[in-house]
Design brief:
- By secondary structure, the chain is an alpha/beta fold.
- The chain has one domain: TIM Barrel.
- Helices cover about 25% and strands about 20% of the residues.
- It has an eight-stranded parallel beta barrel with strand order 1-2-3-4-5-6-7-8. A two-stranded antiparallel sheet has the order 9-10.
- α3 links the parallel β3 and β4.
């Protein structure tokens, strides 16, 4: 089970994720987010940080912005959290692996909504549909919907995951569950992580689930 901590805005937090063997660090390049990384964290320092995969999160951004940010920050993956098309995903995937995020509400039509993206992405990410915005809301959708997931395509699970839920994932019979993605419930304030909570969560995940 991999772990992604999203909403990184501080170099000290990024270095702490590396020290705690977190697999992925998420940097949000969506200006309306309170965790917008573009004006808070130095691109060169991120670019030169090793030991963790760096994920850039975008919402309906231009191709040029994504391409430029991949280069500036040496991103390893791109997470597309808006209304991007399969063709857009395919273009980005020529540069780096792509995570396509989907916001899950009360119902989901896997075949109609997701099947076109299987050939042009590497992973899916499932987050909670919310009027509060694109992710980072602290809200959780009905995970029972995942029991009907019909694909082998690996996915990240996000949306309201808290520090006390590490043990839950060992009990989830979801073969395609690749990683958990945490954010707002591991913060002292938006974009400022509580590293003690992250460290405890990582230890619990690593002790309860074989990676």
């Amino acid at each position: 089970m991999r772990i992604k901590v999203c909403g990184i805005t501080k170099i000290n937090d990024l270095q702490a994720l590396v020290a705690n063997s977190v697999d992925y660090a998420g940097f949000i390049f969506y200006e309306k987010s309170p965790r917008f990384a573009g004006n808070k964290i130095d691109a060169r320092t991120v670019r030169e940080t090793t030991g963790i995969k760096k994920v850039g999160v975008f919402v309906n951004a231009s191709l040029e912005q994504v391409q430029r940010t991949i280069a500036d920050y040496a991103l390893d993956l791109v997470q597309l959290h808006g209304d991007e098309t399969p063709a857009y995903c395919a273009t980005i995937r020529e540069l780096v692996p792509v995570i396509k995020a989907f916001r899950i509400g009360d119902h989901v039509n896997w075949e109609a909504d997701l099947a076109p993206f299987v050939p042009v992405t590497d992973y899916f990410l499932f987050d909670t549909a919310s009027v509060k915005g694109y992710g980072g809301t602290g809200e959780r959708f009905n995970w029972e919907l995942l029991a009907t997931y019909p694909f082998d395509h690996p996915f990240f699970l996000s949306g309201g995951i808290g520090p006390d839920q590490a043990a839950d994932f060992s009990e989830m019979p979801l073969p395609a569950l690749f990683a958990v993605d945490v954010n707002s419930k591991f913060e002292d304030s938006p974009g400022v992580k509580n590293i003690a909570l992250v460290e405890s969560f990582v230890k619990q995940i690593h002790s309860s689930i074989i990676k």
